[in-house]
């Protein structure tokens, strides 16, 4: 009876130890993609044939950032092992249709090859149907989407429910990606907030800048400084003048 109990315990211990050893070796899909595609919901295949062997304690991750104007989207995608993060799926709609769209999806998981998402149909499809249903407003905006810089930005009519033009850049780094995106188009988002203030997407770091905005802000700032100093100088000059006048008035 006692011996039997001991054997059970030993078996449990051995099973426990072997699952521990198995858990230490994790394989994940590995790959990156950066590009612009028409109709990504139906054309993009995210499967990677490459395999990465992870260090102890790692997870698999797959992360994608999609920036779209109409049916065209810039895709920045990465799959790899990851030593940061906890098992979770995160889906964020940073900017929604109509107008410019920014969406991110990231999946951290702990089973072998669990970062195996193939398509984007359920992430991206909802965007297109929404866009088609709307008419256009009288507003027109320069519109473009490019890796690096836009070569041209034709002025296009804006869909209903958009009321301003956006112009900005996203610098995406880490996660084996190092790219700059230029984006122009119609939107209803206010300010330089296409990412809605989210700058970490899975392993990716995203820096958003809107050059026109910051340049004009700087102009106003330095103008104000100049104004202040000139007023201050004028006051000093006046005081000096009064002092001189006062001095000469009280003189002989
Ligand atoms: C994506 O590519 C993989 C292999 O490259 C293939 O097995 C799979 O069927 C493709 N998926 C789609 C939806 O085309
Ligand atoms: C779009 O805007 C136009 C002009 O403002 C308006 O006539 C039209 O009804 C709107 N369409 C929708 C679907 O809201």
Summarize the structure.
This protein has 252 residues and is α+β, with helices and mostly antiparallel strands. It is 31% helix and 39% strand. The protein has one domain (31-231).
What does this structure look like?
This protein is of the alpha+beta class and 252 residues long. The protein has one domain (31-231). The protein is 31% helix and 39% strand. It is built from four helices and 13 strands. The protein has helices at residues 2-24, 40-43, 121-132, 211-249; strands spanning 27-38, 50-53, 59-69, 72-82, 88-95, 101-109, 136-142, 144-147, 155-159, 164-173, 179-187, 200-201, 204-209. The protein has a six-stranded antiparallel sheet, covered by helices on one side. The protein has a five-stranded antiparallel sheet with strand order 8-11-10-13-12. Strands 7-9 form a two-stranded antiparallel sheet. Strand 5 and strand 6 (101-109) form a beta hairpin. The longest helix is centred in the C-terminal third of the chain and has 39 residues, at 211-249. It is elongated and about 60 Å long. 28% of the residues are buried. The site of one 2-acetamido-2-deoxy-beta-D-glucopyranose has 4 residues, from loops.
């Amino acid at each position: 009876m006692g011996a039997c109990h001991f054997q059970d315990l030993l078996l449990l211990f051995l099973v426990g130890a072997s699952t521990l050893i198995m858990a230490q070796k994790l394989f994940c899909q590995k790959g990156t993609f950066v590009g612009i595609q028409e109709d990504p919901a139906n054309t993009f295949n995210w499967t990677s044939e490459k395999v990465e062997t992870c260090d102890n304690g790692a997870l698999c991750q797959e992360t994608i950032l999609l920036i779209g104007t109409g049916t065209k989207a810039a895709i920045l995608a990465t799959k790899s092992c990851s030593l940061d993060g906890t098992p979770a799926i995160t889906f964020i709609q940073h900017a929604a249709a109509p107008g410019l769209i920014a969406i991110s999806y990231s999946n951290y998981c702990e089973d072998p090859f669990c970062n195996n998402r193939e398509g984007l149909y359920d992430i991206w499809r909802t965007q297109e149907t929404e866009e088609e249903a709307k008419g256009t407003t009288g507003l027109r905006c320069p519109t473009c989407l490019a890796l690096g810089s836009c070569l041209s930005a034709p002025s296009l009519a804006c869909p209903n429910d958009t009321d301003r033009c956006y112009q900005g850049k996203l610098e995406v780094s880490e996660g084996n990606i190092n790219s700059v995106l230029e984006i122009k188009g119609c939107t209803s988002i206010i300010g330089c907030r296409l990412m809605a203030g989210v700058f970490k997407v899975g392993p990716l770091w995203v820096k958003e800048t809107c050059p026109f905005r910051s340049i004009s802000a700087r102009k106003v700032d330095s103008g104000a400084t100049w104004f202040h100093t000139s007023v201050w100088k004028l006051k000093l000059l006046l005081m000096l003048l009064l002092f001189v006048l006062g001095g000469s008035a009280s003189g002989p």
